[in-house]
Every structure is written in C-alpha cells, then in structure tokens.
Amino acid sequence: MIINGHRIALTEQDLNKMLGEETQVFNLISPEFEGYKKLKKGDKDALVFLVKAAKIINDVSLKQDHPLNMELKKALEEAAKNNNIAAKALELFNSLNGVEGSNGIDKEPVKIFEDVNGYIGRNFYPIDLSVEEFHEILAEMFNENKIAEIRKILSARTMVRRDGNGIKAIDYTEYFKDEFAKIALALDKASNLVTNDNFAEYLDLQAKALLKNDEKLDMLADMKWAELQYTDLEFTLSRENYDDGMTPTVLENKSLKKLIEEHNIEVVSKDMLGIRVGIVNKKGTELILRFKDYMKELAKLMPLSDKYEQLVAQNGDVKQAMVDADLIELKGDYAQCRGGITTAQNLPNNDKLSVKKGGGRRNVYHRQIRMASDAEKRKKILENLVSAELHKYYNDEADHLFVIGHENGHSLGPDSSYQNALGKYKHIIEEHKADVISIAMMPEYVNSRVIDEKTLKEVYVTWVVKRLFLVAEAKFDHPHRMADSIQFNYLFENKVISFDKEAKLIVNFDVFDKVMKRLLHDTIEVQISKSPEKAKEFIDKYVIWGKESVRISKFLKSLGLKPYKKIRTYF
Rounded to two decimals, what is the model's pTM? Predict the structure, then answer.
C-alpha cells in the first residue's frame, strides 16, 4: 500500500504480529481512578488543559524527530478510515511515535515505509547534512570568528537549518512559535484553576518560558518545578537529549575539539521535548522520600570526590524533590516507545542553567509503567536460569528500590562539564554511573536501617535477573542496555555472578559490595578524565556479547518477546 508516495514496508501479517503477541499494553489511569475522584474540582478542570498541552507538544516532538512525521501521520489517519492495513500502520506509528525507530531487539530500526529512514541528527539538523560537511562548515565558521553562532548551533535548544552555503541555529521559541503559544495558553488557563499556589506559579513560569528566547526564563521555571514536593497534580515539560547523534560528533574531530575548548564552548545535544501529566501518589512518595535523607552521606562516600565538585552540596538541605506519580498522559519524548518506556526520571539534567546556578532537581516515578509485569514469564525465567536457592530473593518491588537508587545516583558525582566532555559516550557512562551508584550504595541503606539484609539481597538478585539478563545484544543508541552489558560482564569477570553445572545463576553475596565499589571508582575515573577515548576503551572492554549472554538471550526469546509498547490513555 502506498501513502503519499511512500510504500508501507510491512505486510498485514507483520503488523498483526507486531501489534498482537509482540505488543505490551500500559494502561494509564482513567476518570474511575480513586485518586482522580478525590481531586478538587479546580484540579480536575485544570487537567483538561494540561492534557491539551501534552497533545500539542507531541506534534513538536514529531517535528523534531523526522521531517515526514506529521505529513505521514495525517495521511495514515485519513487512509485508516477505509483501509485496515493503514489503520494498523497508524497504530504502529503511534507506538513508535514516528515513522521509524528501534524496537530494542533487532539491529536495524523498524521502518513503517520502505524509503523513509531516520537520520543521525534526526530533524534537528538538515537531513542532507553529513557529519563531514557539518564539521567543515563549523571549521569555516571558526575561521570567520562566528563564535556566537557556533555556540547556538552546539546548544540544546535550537533547530539548525541551512543558510546559503552555511548553517544557522533557530531557537525553539521561534521555530515552534505557534505550538508554544498554544501550549502557553493552555498552561495559563490551568494555572488559574489549580488549587496549589506553588504549582500554579510553576505553570505560569513555564508558560512565560515558552514565549521568549531567554534561557533565564527556563531556569526560573525549572527551579520552581524542582521545588514541587507537596502537590496533588504532576506536570513535567521534559527536555532530554538522547536522540541527537550529530552534535556530539564534533568532539571526535580533534581540530574542532581543540577550537571548542579554546573558546570555552559547551557542546550539548539537542533536547527532545515531552510532557507528563499525572496525580501524585502520596503513599508511594513516602517510601521514596526515605531514601532522600541519606544523599549527603552518600555524597561523602563517592570515590575520587576530591577531584571534582560534588553535585550534592554538603551545606544546607538537599535540593531534591521526589514524587511517585499515577500517570494520566505521556506524550512527545515519553511516548517514543522504541525499546522501552521510562520508569522514572531525574531532572533537570546537569547541562541546564538552573542546575548550574544551584537550583534543585526532582525525581518522578511512573507507577503504571513499573507495575506492569508478567508473573508467568518471570516464573519460567527463575526456574530455567536461576539456581533454586536464589528464587526467594527475586522481588519486583526490589527493582523499584534499585530505580530509586539509580535516579538519586544522577545527582551524585561529577557535573555536566565532565559528562558532556565524553561526547557521544556521555549517556552510556552517565546511565552506567547511576546504576552502579544505586547498587554500590545500597548497603549504606542497610546501615541506616532503611532496608534490611534480606531486602539488600533481593535488590542484588532482582537487579541481575531483571536488568542484566539481556534479551538481545546491546546497541549503541540504547545507553541503558549498554550499561547493563558493562555491568553483567564486570560482575562475571570478577566472579560476583557465575553459572552452575545446570547453567543457572549463582551469586556470591560476600564480594558483591567490594566489587561494585571498585566498579564505581573505575566509572568515576572515566568520567573525570573528560576523555572520549578512555570512555570508548572502557565501553569496548566490557560490552561483550559472550556465550552466557547468548544462551540467556536465546531462552528469553523462546518465551516470546513484546518489543512494541502501547500506551492506553483515558482522558
């Protein structure tokens, strides 16, 4: 079938399989949810406008992701009225939230249309701009002393377009002026309805930040958002930069890197925008806050801490809000279900001005995402891959404790100047760092009586089985999975994990803590080196697809895979 001149690459049989047995459905909350019923009328009315803002931001992220996304989505929607294949192709489009994307399993991205491919710079850069030409243009701009424009091009909040023989940067507030104006209007209306004054102030600040090219306005909105601890509603305009593969390539060009350092230019990949809407779950938040109290103590235990400034200050309160959220809507970046869905987030990222100016951060945990599990599949994994004496230590709730530690881990260690200096390797090392901090510091929560010894063992075993048993070889554009691969091989090399004569997992609890602390030291050493070469060497050493990983993957695949995700919403 041809849509707007582009032939659909998948048969109806392909689509039926992808959207049926290979799709996992995540049901977000509905108006029947008890937490929604308990909301005050003003907050319920405000949610209408917050959901409206989320749907508009989805169009923005589609435009950031691929130049044909909007055109082909509209064409699929029209064709779907009378054609079953088009309707199913549209459903897959909505799962990927785009015309193509990784499913986390196959080496090549899934393509809905035969001739529509993704690009290294997504649509942040001209799609016909090669890495080589990009570098040549920047080199010429340095020769012409166009330093201010280079700063804009290599910043997080601009779309880059051709300008004669060169390129220019256009701020998001200009490029997405119409969409941002509509979102700001929706946020303004919501701010006049919500019952919490701090939340209303945040919405007002966020609306203003969308209307003017001024990073200080973003800073003020971010700072206020990071203070939101005791609110009934959850709303986040997220800005994360995993998708842009073009910007960090400049740090691999030795001559450009030298010029960038001489002019003190910070290289930050482009932000993909998303919106989360939800209701704060007070009981779940209580558990998360128990971990917050010890962040200063953990900061003191970070290796090589005399070599860099700690993100967590030792004087004053820890500027870190933490909430558990029941989800109403995930749009934009959140809805790009390309190998997985975010279970939690720690924002703003270290490259944001609010963090650099001493503002706080905020963790938000996604209840409906983490609570979706397959008990029967889990049982088969334990029976076939894990020694019987460890079964009692597998506990899905322990994975939530690991995630809490992971998100807190992003707030510990070196700042963004170290992270960004690693170029295209920065996300892998940073996600790996957060994982390792979570596990390496977990015994400290036993010492503080936040958890007990049995729970610690549950965290260890559940982490290895749920996170490090990979269903497919890790790909570079999936930093979390690359991190998992590093950790599996490091533990295996250091005999923390092994496999018995029946090829079932054995865990050496006696050395777990010692080895993880050594891995944390090695990881921080890579980060503070500011060397992409050292980061690459570390990753290449431990991202190994060995015989045990192949065997585990083969078994996991035999249970049936659900690499495609569907977010079902009700508002």
Answer: 0.87
